[in-house]
Design a protein that fits this description.
With 480 residues, the chain is α/β, with parallel strands linked by helices. The protein has three domains: 269 residues, Spore Coat Polysaccharide Biosynthesis Protein SpsA, Chain A, CATH 3.90.550; 73 residues, no CATH class; 105 residues, Jelly Rolls (Sandwich), CATH 2.60.120.10. A six-stranded antiparallel β-sheet has the order 20-21-22-29-24-27, with no helix packed on it. Helices cover 22% and strands 33% of the residues.
Length: 480
């Protein structure tokens, strides 16, 4: 840090969808929790990026309801305990307002650093250095955004036009002249060649008090409903759950459109830090490691006479390709994508088509995470389904019943405490039990290692909403 000695409060936005990264990314399994480039997910990499406790306070995470348990699981090793749940998506302006209000309760003079959770940055040292220097600018009552210095012509990004330069600082900075929506190729080429435009990174550094006052002045409805939603929030395990009735009345708009384009205090700091927003498969291919034929190969893949492709098998089965050029092929357990690389941005339209056809593959992922562990659907057929269930140490499913299905449980690893009707008994490896439709039951991990079992469901309706809960240690009342 330079002149500014106070710690910066990172705010990590983890509510994105990643529709262009289907079939890996789904509504129930968004792209920020994917391990696309590293062993860690994009979310964890973002948290690690701001882990220097001499500079940063503990991050505040904002996410949606559907992915909260998975996000909490991923962040458990990072000691993240401050997670805010948005009951409905209201874009980045509202998320930033909630964060500013929350942080200002304990530290009204704080600086907050808004970071999307789905970006890749190759030069973390450069990122930290730039943020530290930009903190001095923000402390002088500016709303700072970081503009990426373009290294090519891109039509998939918004642009920032620089105005007059600020002086007297350790880093280059400009008053923002204009935010520009995604341009066509000819316009983007003109922007890039001029040297006066930067890619809009979606990263911001600002005093919480200044952001609150600017939103109150420019977009008061956002602040009003965010204050009501936060003041009426409820604690749910480690989550702060915003009040749904108030939050859903908040206008849905971005920081850029609602605040940064209208304020007189917006400043852009140019950066060259190996940034990529990982918005589509061509972006993943661009930054990932390639073979001698310019292919990215992930998983069990054999490529013959192929060049310039992104080829990925995430299902532990062989993906064999021949004579492909500039293609994306991604195979998962339940879906396979085949598309030209230059059509990567259009995959969102494909996912929307899947939704129109009521295809569950657009929404659900075969692996589903719960606070007690996870389950994976292995076989789904009319009238029966087979799942692999993993229950972590200390995990305890709710006491529940199903009206339309019966269940067979076979323990393959560990030991389980079973509640079935009025009975409670232990089940060990290679032992099984049967749960009749309508019978109250509960499954618990009785050992000190992970419990794994195979569940066979049978019945004419196998939906996850066929559940009645009688007791739940996680405070859940719905089918999650």
């Amino acid at each position: 840090m330079n002149k500014t000695s106070k710690k910066i409060h990172p705010v990590i936005l983890a509510g994105g969808k990643g529709e262009r990264l289907w079939p890996l990314s789904r509504k129930e399994y968004p792209k920020q929790i994917l391990s696309l480039l590293h062993e860690n997910s994009l979310l964890v990499e973002t948290v690690l990026r701001v882990s220097d406790t001499d500079i940063f306070d503990t991050p505040l995470i904002i996410c949606n309801d559907t992915s909260r348990f998975l996000i909490a699981e991923q962040l458990q090793s990072q000691n993240i305990v401050d997670i805010i749940i948005e009951p409905v998506g209201r874009n980045t302006a509202a998320a930033a307002a909630i964060a500013a209000l929350k942080i200002s309760r304990d530290d009204p003079d704080a600086l907050m650093l808004i970071l999307p959770s789905d970006h890749n940055i190759n030069n973390n040292e450069g990122f930290i250095d730039t943020v530290s220097k930009a903190a001095d600018i923000a402390s002088e009552n500016y709303l700072v955004t970081f503009g990426i210095i373009p290294d090519s012509v891109k039509t998939g990004y918004g642009y920032i036009h620089r105005g007059v330069a600020l002086t007297g600082h350790d880093t280059q900075a400009f008053i923002v002249s204009q935010f520009v929506e995604k341009p066509d190729y000819k316009t983007a080429k003109t922007y890039t060649e001029s040297g006066e435009y930067f890619w809009n990174s979606g990263m911001f550094l600002m005093p919480v008090s200044l952001y609150i006052s600017e939103v109150r002045k420019i977009a008061p409805q956002i602040l009003d409903y965010c204050e009501l939603a936060l003041n009426n929030a409820k604690q749910d395990l480690q989550f702060t759950r915003l009040d749904e009735e108030y939050f859903k009345q908040c206008p849905s708009t971005s920081i850029d459109y609602s605040v940064m384009e209208k304020t007189q205090l917006a400043v852009v700091v140019p950066v060259d830090i190996g940034w990529n927003d990982i918005g589509a498969w061509d972006a993943v291919w661009q930054v990932d490691k390639k073979d001698q034929n310019n292919n990215v190969l992930r998983g069990d893949v054999i490529a013959e006479n192929c060049s310039g492709n992104y080829l990925r098998s995430d299902n532990s089965h062989l993906l064999a390709c021949m004579d492909l050029k500039n293609m994306v092929v991604v195979a998962t357990r339940d879906a396979t994508l085949v598309a030209p690389m230059d059509k990567s941005q259009d995959i969102k339209q494909l996912t929307q088509l899947l939704v129109q056809h009521n295809r569950s593959e657009a929404i659900d992922h075969p692996m589903v995470y719960r606070p007690w562990g996870n389950y994976c659907s292995l076989i789904i057929q009319p009238n029966f389904q087979v799942k692999r269930i993993s229950v972590k140490t200390g995990g305890r499913l709710s006491l529940q019943s199903h009206q339309h299905r019966s269940e067979h449980w076979i323990v393959v690893k560990g030991s389980a405490t079973i509640t079935r009707g009025e009975q409670t008994f232990l089940l060990y490896e290679n032992e099984s039990t049967y749960i009749q439709a309508g019978q109250k039951h509960r499954l618990e991990n009785a050992g000190e290692t992970e419990l794994e079992l195979i569940e066979v469901q049978s019945g004419y309706y196998l939906g996850e909403d066929d559940i009645t809960r009688y007791d739940d240690v996680y405070g859940r009342v719905s089918n999650d």
